[in-house]
């Protein structure tokens, strides 16, 4: 009967592995964006969104960043589904967030605000640009909703401070979106907070007892 000791260990390791994909996703996306923003000519964090890094000759790096992070988020969604004993709400919303990164890769943002180098200040809305904006809005709204849903299992496992924070963070993230028309930096800060909080919540849940 000793064979029964092997399968649970492997299952636990697999669950932890896919959850750690979610822990890595946000920091990876932001680190890759920061390095590109500091090294790409004409990019200004105060005027340009990280999505615009997918434009220009070196834009393939940011496109790859979108694709990889989207895959990590989808793996995270699968891991959360198992970790939460089959609950679908939060994991499905995180999955939608992951798919929004793939959509962002397929439909690049519009040039503007001087980036890529030589682009005019005023951006001209294209079909791809509109699709990119829609994907981002849907994705981050799904992420905000996911935080509210994930607050429940956090509270159930005794992480009440985390649960409260998971109801406050999406309000701040959404405020960043509302302020995006006036400040690109506010949008970037709100999006970054959402990514990092997802990493933190995933890490917290990964360290909690699995319910099935």
UniProtKB/TrEMBL annotation:
Keywords: Membrane, Transmembrane, Transmembrane helix. The chain crosses the membrane at residues 16-39, 59-80, 92-109, 129-150, 171-198. The keyword Ion transport does not apply. It holds the Pfam family DUF998. This is DUF998 domain-containing protein. It comes from Streptomyces finlayi.
């Amino acid at each position: 009967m000793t064979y029964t000791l092997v399968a649970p260990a492997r299952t636990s390791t697999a669950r932890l592995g896919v959850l750690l994909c979610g822990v890595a996703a946000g920091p990876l996306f932001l680190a890759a964006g920061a390095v590109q923003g500091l090294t790409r000519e004409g990019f200004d964090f105060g005027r340009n969104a990280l999505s615009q890094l997918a434009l220009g000759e070196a834009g393939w790096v940011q496109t790859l960043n979108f694709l990889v992070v989207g895959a990590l988020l989808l793996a995270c969604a699968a891991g959360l589904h198992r970790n939460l004993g089959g609950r679908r709400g939060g994991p499905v919303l995180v999955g939608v967030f992951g798919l929004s990164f793939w959509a962002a890769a397929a439909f690049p943002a519009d040039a503007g605000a001087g980036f890529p180098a030589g682009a005019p200040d005023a951006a001209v809305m294209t079909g791809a640009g509109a699709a990119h904006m829609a994907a981002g809005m849907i994705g981050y709204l799904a992420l905000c909703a996911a935080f509210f849903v994930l607050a429940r299992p956090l509270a159930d496992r005794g992480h009440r401070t985390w649960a409260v924070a998971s109801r406050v963070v999406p309000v701040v993230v959404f405020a960043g979106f509302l302020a995006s028309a006036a400040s690109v930096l506010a949008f970037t800060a709100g999006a970054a907070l959402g990514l990092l909080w997802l990493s933190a919540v995933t890490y917290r849940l990964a360290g909690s007892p699995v319910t099935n």
